[in-house]
Specification:
The chain is of the alpha+beta class. The protein has 5 helices and 4 strands; from the N terminus they run H-H-E-E-E-E-H-H-H. Strands 1-2-3-4 form a 4-stranded antiparallel β-sheet, covered by helices on one side. Strand 2 and strand 3 form a beta hairpin. Helix 3 packs across helix 4. The longest helix is centred in the last third of the chain and has 36 residues.
Length: 154
């Protein structure tokens, strides 16, 4: 319960704590690159500058800033690529993704490399059942003394 509350609180404040890398701006004014080229630029950067796997999970395009945030499948790195210039704007770790996975239990699926979120489902089920149990017993502990007092009065 404490882990869920603590990580939930951190997720609520993730932008203020800078757990998510801020989006950089691409000032170039030419037309945008194809998505395949943006993916290739990010993968090439990862291959040449790190020992991490280059498999892409998703690409988040920010048109107003002219940037693409490339996130990877097997690590928490984010490479921001200018969608017009093809320039690497930023390379950071997405701390908020780590906190989110701790919060929802999927960090264990990530660490044990399970494909169908079995650990997450078990964790969430147990947590939800515990919360429901605590709610019912908490209500009973609040209500029962009042019931006994009323019975004694009568």
């Amino acid at each position: 319960m404490f882990v869920i509350a603590a990580t939930g609180l951190l997720l609520a404040w993730k932008k203020e704590f800078k757990f998510v890398p801020p989006t950089q701006k691409d000032a170039t004014v030419v037309s945008s690159l194809p998505i395949e080229k943006i993916a290739e630029i990010a993968q090439t950067y990862i291959l040449e500058n790190t020992d991490l796997e280059p498999e892409i999970n998703r690409i988040d395009i920010r048109l107003k800033q002219g940037a693409a945030k490339v996130r990877f499948e097997h690590h928490y790195s984010e490479v921001q690529v200018g969608i017009r210039s093809g320039e690497i704007l930023s390379v950071k770790t997405r701390t908020s993704d780590i906190i989110e996975q701790i919060h929802d239990g999927s960090i264990l699926d990530f660490l044990f490399k399970t494909n169908n979120e079995e650990v997450k489902k078990t964790y969430v089920t147990m947590t939800c059942l515990a919360l429901m149990f605590l709610s019912v017993t908490g209500f009973y502990l609040w209500w029962n003394p009042r019931r006994i007092k009323k019975l004694k009065k009568n």
